[in-house]
Amino acid sequence: MSEANGTQPATSDALENLLQENRKFAPSEEFAANAVVKPGIYEEADADHEAFWAKQARELLSWNEDFTQTLDWSDAPFAKWFVGGTLNAAYNALDRHVENGLGDRVAIYFEGEPGDSRSYTYAQLTEEVKKAANAFESLGLAKGDRVAVYLPMIPEAVITMLACARIGAIHSVVFGGFSADALRSRIDDAEAKLVVTSDGTYRRGKPSPLKPAVDAALEAKGHSVSSVVVVKRNGEPVDWHEGRDRWWHEVVESASADHTPVPHDAEHPLFILYTSGTTGKPKGILHTTGGFLAQSAFTHKATFDLHAETDVYWCTADIGWVTGHTYVTYAPLINGATQLMYEGTPDTPHQGRWWELVEKYKVSIMYTAPTAIRTMMKWGEDIPAKFDLSSIRVLGSVGEPINPEAWMWYRRVIGGDKAPIVDTWWQTETGAHMIAPMPGITETKPGSAQTPVPGIAVDVVDEMGQSVPNGHGGYLVIRKPWPAMLRGIWGDPERYKETYWSRFDNMYFAGDGAKKDDDGDFWLLGRVDDVMNVSGHRLSTTEIESALVSHPSVAEAAVVGASDETTGEAVVAFVILRGNAVEDPEIVTTLRNHVGKEIGPIAKPRQILVVPELPKTRSGKIMRRLLKDIAEGREAGDSSTLADNTVMQQITSSLKG
Ligand code: 6R9
Q1: How many CB atoms lie within 10 A of CB 361?
Q2: Which of 330, 524, 540, 569 to mutate to test the pocket of ligand 1 (most atoms within 8 A of CB)?
Q3: Which ligand 1 atom sits closest to the C-alpha of 423?
Q4: Nearest protein Cα to ligand 1, atom 15
Q5: Reduced to 3 states, what is the DSSP secondary structure of residue 199?
Q6: Where would I find the beta strands (DSSP E) of 464-621?
Q7: 555 C-alpha vs ligand 1 centroid, how far in Å?
Q8: C-alpha of residue 371 to centroid of ligand 1, in Å
Q9: 364 lines ligand 1 (CB under 6 A)
Q10: Residue whose CA lies nearest to ligand 1 atom number 23
Q11: What is d(CA 278, CA 568) in angstroms, rounded to the nearest whole number?
Q12: 612 cis-preceded (ω within 30 degrees of 0)
């Protein structure tokens, strides 16, 4: 770990706390007896990991052409899974269930923030996707073209993604909270031909616009977009660009509901999803069809103990993040599950909204993030206590390490002290769960993601890439290719190799620190690189720093993630102002808004501290570790390697003043 980055000290504090944790919760006999996954699965997967995945792929997916080779790793680290196989993702998610007599099963219960609701059976959703596929084709979209999706959490988002998959077009979903600039850079990088958006959505009881950001993104000439399809959601007035813009209800609703899915190669690209890396430029993570779907479907079934006939599943993630891709759009539908989709915020119109929905839809599997759980803890347990949560039988967590207190609260208050908690570690890059308990087998431990998913080879290694013994910490790596692994970074194969495969020989380096406890269970300790995790969302320090220095008032900026009780980490920025800006009393607000505009509101620093200098090593690297000490209210640590060791003194006295 570099001197300049400084997550190490925080990591060892976290370790000490976690070592005190020794509670264990075994599944009840009844749960274990009815569980989808039986003991023995680990041995089966260990015996032959390729055979294991081949079996899952054949059992969980319908192939037009069976594959002839499970894994081709001859061009490592570029993997090919299920070579020679062909299939259609949308057919697997929809048509085949209708053909199998499940057309009347509800696929999606949708609940809008204002309280409107609608539901789609598998038959209805299939019809909508066929219409959307025809509509997109009528706009000139063809196999391999890219589509930017900038939509709120409404069924049209899922319909759009599946319609793309059906055609073989590649979707690139951009989170609705990202700015016009962020949207434009993603449109440009993928050279998207079509944008699908909406007039807007509802946020905290008020209409919130989306279309204006698309208009702003496409204002400057030289882009690749020929059509924009607009879903009418909140009815707010929008500007209209004749010839470019079309209403969804005109093009999609009038399209034919007959559409034959064509089979695509197992390695045909399914989607691109941009994620923050350690440099300023987001990476377009590329996923392909067969492997992604196989591991997604398997993990969704195994980790959540899905009984598709009876369960009601709810993942609270937005489709703008990978969790919304794998565990909202694809896996639940591939598995024929019934799921709930909710548009809004958890506290509108009241802080019990989520629990009201659990009661209303009898949600049995809930999947959310630690930041949400901690927020609910703050609001108080008398709020969920007002609702009937007895339908809940499995609780999932994702996005960041879950602290034992939040884990215990989740289990006791939401899970009625009986529902197993599955803490799932994975990434945009891994595509699907990689470390997670199997709820009918694993004795769960508060705060630990515990065991690699069957068929996944996870390890913790030291600086030299040697596996560490139990009871030790180090870097989290993946030793063998896995079906849902990213196939590359869009347009940049070198960066793919460099980012993930260059730190250790023949191992994928995830960027996370982890520890193995005495039982060999995994405990995740956060990022070891310059990526922050704010409410489960990845933000790059570099990206926010470049946004700050792009403002004319800022000479230099350094950003750190400071621990925050609710959001896990919070963005804290240290800036050196240019001479003429020093006297501006509004400067902090101006800069926060500037970051919001450049990247999106989620990236706005919680705090911006104006300082006279930044601590740097002789080689010019900013020592973020020292800034983190200040941001977290500690005495700054060892500053002996600073080029100028009076700098910390200058900073602290300027902040006091
Ligand atoms: C799925 C998702 C990935 C990063 C990852 C890690 C953190 C995710 C976690 C977790 C501890 C968990 N992370 N799940 N850390 N325990 N259960 O969040 O993908 O947005 O790409 O973030 O999130 O640091 O490296 P993504």
Answers
A1: 21
A2: 524
A3: 17
A4: 400
A5: coil
A6: 473-478, 488-489, 508-516, 522-527, 531-534, 537-540, 554-564, 568-577, 607-610
A7: 33
A8: 12
A9: no
A10: 399
A11: 19
A12: no
pLDDT for 618-628, tens place per residue?
A: 666 778 889 99
Q: Which of 152, 155, 204 is nearest to 176 (CA)?
A: 152
- Percentage of the residues of the chain whose pLDDT score is greater than 90: 81
The Cα–Cα gap between 99 and 622 comes to 60
Q: Is 524 in the pocket of ligand 1 (CB under 6 A)?
A: yes
Domain covering 529-656, topology: GMP Synthetase; Chain A, domain 3 (3.30.300)
- Per-residue confidence at 282, pLDDT binned at 50, 70, 90? confident
Residue listed under structure tokens 């009780």: 565
Q: Which residue shows structure tokens 């905290």?
A: 204
Centroid of ligand 1 to alpha carbon of 399 (angstroms): 4
> How far apart are the C-alpha atoms of 65 and 353, rounded to whole Å?
46
Q: Tell me the per-residue pLDDT of 178-224, one tens digit each, with 9 for 90 and over.
A: 999 999 999 999 999 999 999 999 999 999 999 999 999 999 999 99
Check if the beta carbon of residue 548 is closer than 8 Å to that of residue 573: yes
Which phi and psi angles does 431 have, rounded to 5°?
80, -35
Phi and psi torsions of 482, nearest 5°: -130, 155
| Any ligand 1 atom below 6 A from CB of 424 | yes
Q: What is the pLDDT of residue 7?
A: 35
- Residue 282 CB less than 6 A away from ligand 1: no
**Ligand 1: distance of its center to the CA of 605 in Å?**
21
426 close to ligand 1 (CB < 6 Angstrom): yes
Residue with tokens 């208009």: 215
Nearest to 454 by CA among 33, 80, 25, 40: 40
pLDDT for 2: 34
Give the ipTM of the model, two decimals please.
Answer: 1.00
- Is residue 595 a contact partner of residue 544, using CB atoms and an 8 Å limit? yes
- Hey, whose CA ends up nearest to atom 1 of ligand 1? 427
Question: Which architecture characterizes domain 29-456 according to CATH?
Answer: 3-Layer(aba) Sandwich (3.40)
Q: Is the CB of 428 under 6 A from ligand 1?
A: yes
Per DSSP, the three-state class of 69 is: strand
Cβ of 124 less than 6 Å from ligand 1 = no
CA distance 130 to 402: 40
Ligand 1 within 6 A of CB of 400 = yes
> Considering only CA atoms, which residue is closest to atom 7 of ligand 1?
400
> In the chain, where are the structural domains located?
29-456, 529-656
Separation of alpha carbons 509 and 528, rounded Å: 11
Q: Structure tokens of 406? A: 């939040």
Separation between Cα atoms, residue 428 and residue 189, nearest integer Å: 18
Cα–Cα distance, 299 to 484 (Å, whole number):
11
